[in-house]
Design brief:
Elements lengths: L12 E5 L3 H13 L3 E5 L2 H11 L7 E4 L7 H8 L9 H12 L3 E5 L2 H4 L7 E3 L4 H16 L1
Parallel strand pairs: 1-2, 1-3, 3-4, 4-5
Length: 146
Amino acid sequence: MCGSGSSSACEKRILLVDDQPRAIEGLKRDLEAAGFSVVCVRTLNQAWREIENSRDQRPFDLLITDLYLPFDLSELESYRSDIKEGPFNQGEMLAAYLQGKGIPYFFYTSDESFYRGNEKHKVFMKSESREALLEKIKETVWERAD
């Protein structure tokens, strides 16, 4: 069984989305050290393209995204029909799209007002313990594999 140990046969794919590369460099390193395959992008448009392109190969097992991301709305119009609720901030727009695809996600943000009282989404503050975030990521990815 896969689970907590890292094994190349069990490698899971994670998409990290943040327009500030330094905000996720350490997390990317930690995830790769834990045996995950990690793809990083900086915009909402890039995230959508990665998700769509991965459908023909190996889909992502988890997406971790910031809330506020650069985007070109004209390019995203074709995806909006797949979103049942909204509009929201950019991260929530992406999350609504992912829900329809069955891909779990976490928000990884420094926006404390979004974090407090949020019962709809899994939200982690960038200031929180990296170990706690890694444990939640592992639980989510391995739950999905079962």
